[in-house]
Each structure stands twice: as C-alpha cells, then as structure tokens.
Design brief:
Layout: H1 8-22, H2 30-38, E1 59-61, E2 66-68, H3 71-78, H4 81-91, H5 98-104
Antiparallel strand pairs: 1-2
Amino acid sequence: MGGKCPHRKVKKRRFSHKSARRSKFLLKGDDAVYENVCKPEEERKTLPLDEDLPGMGQYYCLHCDRYFANLSVRDEHFKTKRHKKRLKQMAGPAPHTQLDADLAAGMGMPDNGPKLMSM
C-alpha cells in the first residue's frame, strides 16, 4: 500500500502550463511597476487601443501589470488575494533595483580610501 499520489504529475503539468501562459505577455519588473505607481495621475498616459492585448488593452491593473478582457473581470481581480498582496507590496518601501544588486555583489564603484601619495 502507499506510494505516490497518482494525480501528482497532472498537478505539476497544470501549474507549468499556467506559468507558460502567463509569460505570454511580457510583465514588467517590480521596480518598473513601482515607478509607474509613484507617478502622479497627470503623468500617467491613457491606454492606447491594442488589438493584441485582451480587451483591446483598455482594462489594465497598474499594480499587477495585467490586462483583462472586460470591466467585470478586472473588478473581480481587484477583490482577489493576489491583488491585495500586490497593493500592500507596492505601498511599502521601494523594491530592489539592479544598482542595489550590483552594490551588494561588490560590483559597484571601488572605495580604495584617500590617496596618500600622488605620482
């Protein structure tokens, strides 16, 4: 008796399919989304019509960087746990940027101290 669950492989396949589906539309990084959220309302551009995006690109969630097919689907998305977590994340401190990563890895400007002798 016992052994692995027979449905385990199906579940893995289902999740891998979802991640491939999500990567169909290129998503912005957290730092790029944070910059857009911090902009004032006047600087944000109106959404142009785009046939390649769901809902002609008119129904967009700024915090999650997602497009929706219609207004009701977008409003349902606003009630989800995923969107609420994203709102909380974007309301906090700024996410790490590439400059932060470079400095942490020691790839920033070298600090060799003051020059003692000039040649």
